[in-house]
Amino acid sequence: MTLNDVITRVDSLRPNGFTPEEKAEMVSRLDAEAVKDAEGIPASPLFYPQDAEMELYIPFPFDDCYVLYVIAQIDLANADMSLYPNDSGAFNARYTEWRAWQARHRPPRRMEWKGRYLRV
User: Fold this and answer.
1) Of 19, 46, 86, 117, which has the most beta carbons under 10 Å away?
2) What distance in Å separates the CA atoms of residue 48 and residue 81, rounded to the nearest whole number?
3) pTM score, two decimals?
């Protein structure tokens, strides 16, 4: 899924007054967190429209995490507390499923001694 796909799906599912740049910032925040969780390294931010066609980190079939996250962030920003708990819960469940799938299907990172500390 690309940044443009996420923005298009969010706009069709939850009409909102946020600009594409603001939604791209939300997606970028989640993408950086996913890279950090999975790889342990920082990720560079995404910018709209320059990175609109860039493939995001979380793969299919878990890529709907991005849509669920942006929808939950829109609810939070709008102080819509009737929708936010459900949407954030849906995002958290899906993100946890992706992390569990990743833990089962990716080899563990190698750890080695470097000086006095164990490094990844």
Assistant:
1) 46
2) 28
3) 0.87
